[in-house]
Amino acid sequence: MENKHKPDFLFEGLNYKILLVGIGVIALGFILMSGGGSDDPNVFNEDIFSFRRIRLAPTVVLIGFGITIYSIFKKAKK
């Protein structure tokens, strides 16, 4: 008598998919934040204070964290 027990996962497949989407959105936010520096330290570049880096990118990162938290708290339908 073999007792084959299917391993129980903590989340369902949908939770993992939503989690990956959330991680992708967070990564997109950090990519939007990057750049804007200057090669010469004596030259100031105003581009670091652009709308994309100050408002859009942190908002995208926070939305990604919200999606990730939602994927953790989402209950499975049974």
Q: What can you tell me about this protein's structure?
A:
With 78 residues, the protein is an all-alpha fold. It is 56% helix and 0% strand. It has helices spanning 13-33, 51-73.
Explain the layout of strands and helices.
Layout: H1 13-33, H2 51-73
Helix pairs in contact: 1-2
Approximate helicity band:
55-70%
**Unreliable stretches covering 5 or more consecutive residues:** none
Main sheet specs: none
What oligomeric state is this? single chain
Number of strands: 0
Secondary-structure-based class equals mainly alpha
Residue share in β-strands: under 5%
Count of individual helical segments: 2
SSE series: HH
User: Alpha-carbon distance between the termini?
Assistant: 29 Å
Radius of gyration: 20 Å
* Mean pLDDT over the residues: 88
Shape: elongated
Properties at a glance:
78 residues, mainly alpha
What's the gist of this structure?
The protein has 78 residues and is mostly helical. The protein has helices at residues 13-33, 51-73.
